[in-house]
Amino acid sequence: MPNEDTPAEACSAIRETGSAELTGTRGNIHCLTIVGQIEGHQLLPPETKSTKYEHVMPQLAAVEEAPDIDGLLILLNTVGGDIEAGLGIAELIAGMSKPTVSLVLGGGHSIGVPLAVAAKRSIIAPTAAMTIHPVRLTGVVVGAPQTYDYFAKIQDRIVEFVTRSSNITRERFTDMMQRTGELAADIGTALYGREAVEAGLIDEVGGLSEALGWLHSQLK
Question: Mind telling me the catalytic residues?
Answer without folding.
Answer: 110, 133
